[in-house]
Design goal:
It contains five helices and five strands; from the N terminus they run E-E-H-E-E-E-H-H-H-H. By secondary structure, it is an alpha+beta fold. Strand 3 and strand 4 form a beta hairpin.
Amino acid sequence: MTKHHIQTTLNGDEIDVLVEPAQSLLDVLRDELHMTGTKEGCATGDCGACSVTIDGNLVCSCLVLGVEVGGRNIETIEGMANGDQLHPLQDKFIEHVALQCGICTPGLLIAAKHLLEENPDPTEEEVRYGLAGNLCRCTGYQKVVEAVLDAAQVMQK
């Protein structure tokens, strides 16, 4: 099978990668680029574990073909922290113990970051709606919602 050369921006860095025509962005990230923070939960776009942003839009990377991202700006969980300094959302997820097994955590963090970029001061209902596409089997959602609301307050200061 012929691979396609793709040039894109990943977490602020220009990259080149060879991808197979039917390869999902999730598989490209994990298998070709060794960016294993983005997780596969369902491979059908139902759980949100593989959430990334493409040109500022929240997407399930399992539903996007790698060949579709040429020239686009992709952000993954690996680009969320600033060096050794965690993003306020990451800090608050730890502080509120809003994670357990970790499969859903990267997708929840990416979705929460997208939510706060769109709505810096959400209500609890807006947080729950904004994260509705992300499923978690371990934590329940209360601690996640509290972490996002707390991070929103910190980020506004």
